[in-house]
Amino acid sequence: MSPTNIFDPASTPADSIFGLSIFVLLNVAAVFIVVFALLAYVVVRFRSKRNDDQKEPAQIYGSTQVELAWTVIPVLIVLALFLAAARVIASVQNPPRPPGALEVIVTGHQYWWEYRYPSLNIVTANELHVPLSDPAHPTPTFLSLFSADTNHSFWVPRLAGKTDLIPNHPNQMWIDPHEPGLFLGQCAQYCGTQHAKMLLRVYVQPRDEFDKWVREQQQRSPAGTLSAGQRIFESTACVNCHTVSGTPAKGHFGPDLTHLMSRATIAAGAAPNTSQMLRLWIKNPDAIKPGSKMPAMGLNDQDLDAVTAYLETLR
Amino acid sequence: MLSSVIGSIGTAINIIATILCMRCPGMTLGKMPLLVWLNLVMAGLVILAVSPLSAAQIMLLIDRYLGGHFFDTQAGGSAVIWMHFFWIFGHPEVYVLVLPAFAFASEIIPVFSRKAIFGYPVMVLATIAIGFIGMSVWAHHMFTVGMSAGANTFFVLSTMAIAVPTGIKIFNWVATMWGGKLRFEAPMLFCVAFLFQFLVAGLTGVTLAVAPLDWQLGNSYYVVAHFHYVIVGGILFTIFAAFYYWFPKAIGKRYNEALARLHFWLFFIGFHLTFDFMHVPGLLGMPRRIYTYEPGRGWDIWNLLVTVGVVFQAAGILIFAGNLIWSYLRGKAAGNDPWDAWTLEWSTSSPPPVYNYAAIPVVRSRRPLWDLKHPEDPDWRYE
Amino acid sequence: MSANTFAISELPASRPFTLRLHEWVTTVDHKRLGVLYILFALVFLIVGGIEATIMRLQLVRPHNDLVSPEVFNRMFTMHGTTMIFFVAMPLVFGFANYLVPLMIGARDMAFPRLNAFSFWMSALGGLFLYFSFLGGNGLYGAGSTPDAGWFAYAPLTAKTFSVVASSEY
Asked: Smallest Cα–Cα separation from B173: which of A217, C145, A42?
């Protein structure tokens, strides 16, 4: 069973679309069967016979009734599909916003996702955590979509249809997941060389687990003596792009690394978050995601080990 | 790109002027072959649609080299405006490509069914309707861009509306075949496949016209499958039909029928292997324009099947090219009218002389050669 | 209406190749221009087909490494642009050119020289776009062909994000 199957919805907008798709597919299948049957019949029934008398068949130039019939019926079908579509457009584009709704500001970058939870004071990247929504007391998550550079598109099929992230053109979408778990997706608007590896991971968590995650994300880094790795991190170009809250690193070009180790993957899903992959990413990002905006840092092996060890303390 | 755009507009102007001003005596607009009608509307669409594209390209050049900010979002420009300009061109462009495909089907199907086209006036009206409505549907390529519910709803309606005249055309072609005596040489094989494939392509288009479905399926391999179904399964198949139908006229020699049928079956199998199965990864969440993809999403087997189809299509095209070359060098003489057809081009020699007709013909109906061949029952009695 | 049964060329049957080539290059006859459009399109059909085949071979299995992402992105951009502008449109114009005057009983198009000019402008456009394969990284890196998709969405095609000259082609 594919984890990105549009016919396996787990959230209200995806459910509405799924219901509509069944109605549309039934109509379309009916039309197909009728016309295909006619075509197949004609091809078999009217083929010219071998012992044909070579006379031309009766020439029929048209028939007003027939033309009327096959105009009116398609118009009715089109009307039905249109009305069904209009209903779902209205319900998805003008949703109610209950008091429990969570807001996340999503900013698309080449080639990673930035997530800010303004009401919770959290900044994270690439792996989105949202609370499970109970149909009786819905707690949907509203995503405000921005872009720092080119066009992107947020598509997690089991949760909702896609909406584009367009620079200078804020958009909004919402999800209302009623099944816990990990939901996969990826960027769906060509945004440059590594469009293919701008993956999405959305964790839908029951309330208590989500609150626990929030608390962990809200913690600041503990102050203390600087490790060798931290010293290298803070004195190299790393701080130009990355933020680690509570330290001098305040760059915004790349993902926030404050709670890097709370994530299962790095480079927007391009590699698992293991020691080996982290080290490789810093040493030679092109080995994992050629064309990403992370430069090879040119560190020697000793420094690489130290920085990796430091990053692994960022829980 | 700007260079070839100038070429397109020049040709369109030429086509319109020729059709409006140079028809032979007796050929009123209502007596032109459908191919001529379809090319007239196509040329009109070229002129209307290509200008926005050129404008956008020039604005992009200004942005890139003269400090403009039309589309430069970092300086307040709009990415969405580029999309509007592009798709105001892009959608009518596909009608520019498909109307000639309809033209070929409208000429070939009657001849190989031995019947006049069913519903000529309706076919003309449907063509004009497609031309008009086709200018109003462009933003169905932008359903995920964040337009208002009202705007999205309008474009659903206009896109659905165009399905009606298009469907009417399919029904008229089938009705032409109904009660006829069908001959299945290569041109007709390709046209019958076109009917079946264009039906499917149109229906997947209807599913995409439903904006909420497009929110899931837009920019995925379902869309890629849909438009290749139209362009390859619809347009390219009728182009092959047209090649085989008019090759004897243009070259004066018959093509090899056995090779043509081999071409048809190889290409048909390859087309379906590739483009039928291509819908599935889209339904399973695979976006387009990705150079690689993750395992474990259920996409692997479908991508493999899609790639296998390429082999058959390539083989078909090679046979086609071989057939053209072989027939050009060694084909048997074709004569003026190898298909027993009814439009004017079959009255002159194969290939036609440089001046086409020694004396300009005078016509009295839509099928001048039918009138000549059937003086006891001419078309002009019924039109 | 008389039947035209003669089509012999007025010129001697065997002419030097250069003379024939000159006839074709300078022709304003709608039939010859139609054939030129169609031959042009067939050549680009093969090229576009090769671009498609490269893409399909890359996608035959996940995490394949037949071509780099840069080359793949150039492939899908060129495949789309080629097939629409240098295959489908020339085929459409080629058939229209050939058939429309014949089917309305005319001797040629209304503006034969404009017709020839239009063909050569289209051909120039194709050559110019494919010239881009020779720029940038050179042939195996697919040069500096455009890589922003055939719809060339801004702002990806703006100078900030597409520094190489590819979008101009």
From this structure: A42
| A13 and A140 belong to one structural domain | yes
From the CA of A294, how many Å to the nearest CA of chain B? 19
Interface membership of C39 toward B (CB under 8 Å): no
C140 has pLDDT over 60 = no
Has residue A147 been placed in a domain?
yes
Considering the domain architecture, whether residues A29 and A170 belong to the same structural domain is answered as: yes
Beta-carbon-side half-sphere exposure of residue B155 (alpha carbons within 13 Å): 24
Whether A185 is in a domain gets the answer yes
Residue with tokens 């439903």: B210
**What chain A residue is nearest to C77 in terms of C-alpha separation?**
A190
Q: Is residue A191 part of a domain?
A: yes
Nearest to C98 by CA among B100, B253, B368: B100
Mutation to test the B interface, candidates A34, A70, A75, A87, most B Cβ within 10 Å? A70
- Dihedral angle of Cα B304, B305, B307, B309, to the nearest 10 degrees: 170
Which 8-state DSSP code applies to residue B139?
G
Whether the link from the prior residue into A111 is cis, omega within 30° of 0, is yes
Ranges of chain B with pLDDT below 50? none
Instruction: Give C149's contacts in chain A (Cβ within 8 Å).
Output: 190
Partner B contacted by A182 (CB < 8 A): no
Domain-embedded: residue A45: no
The yes-or-no verdict on residue C156 having pLDDT over 80 is no
Q: Return the percentage of chain A with pLDDT > 70, whole number.
A: 99
Residues A232 and A196 both lie in one domain: no
Residue A82 pLDDT more than 90? yes
Do B97 and C56 count as a contact with CB atoms less than 8 A apart?
no
Task: Mutation target for C interface from A110, A165, A193: give the one with most C CBs within 10 A.
Answer: A193
Task: Name residue A47's amino acid.
Answer: R
For residue A4, give the amino acid letter. T
Q: Which 3 state secondary structure label does DSSP give A165?
A: strand
ipTM: 0.95
pTM of the model: 0.94
For the cut 80, the answer to whether the pLDDT of residue C162 exceeds it is no
In chain C, domain spans: 17-168
Dist CA B366 CA C4 (whole Å):
20
Residues A47/B184, Cβ–Cβ less than 8 Å: yes
- Cβ of B157 within 8 Å of Cβ of A82? The answer is yes
Say which CATH number the domain at A103 has. 2.60.40.420
Rg (CA), chain B: 23
Q: With the C-alpha atoms ordered A190, B220, C70, B84, is the resulting torsion angle positive or negative?
A: negative
A85 and A148 housed in the same domain: yes
CA C119 to chain centre: 10
Q: For residue A275, give its domain range.
A: 228-311
The tokens of C92 are what? Answer: 């459409």
Residue type present at position A253? F
In 10 A of CB A192, how many CB atoms? 23
Contact criterion met (CB < 8 Å) for C72 and B291: yes
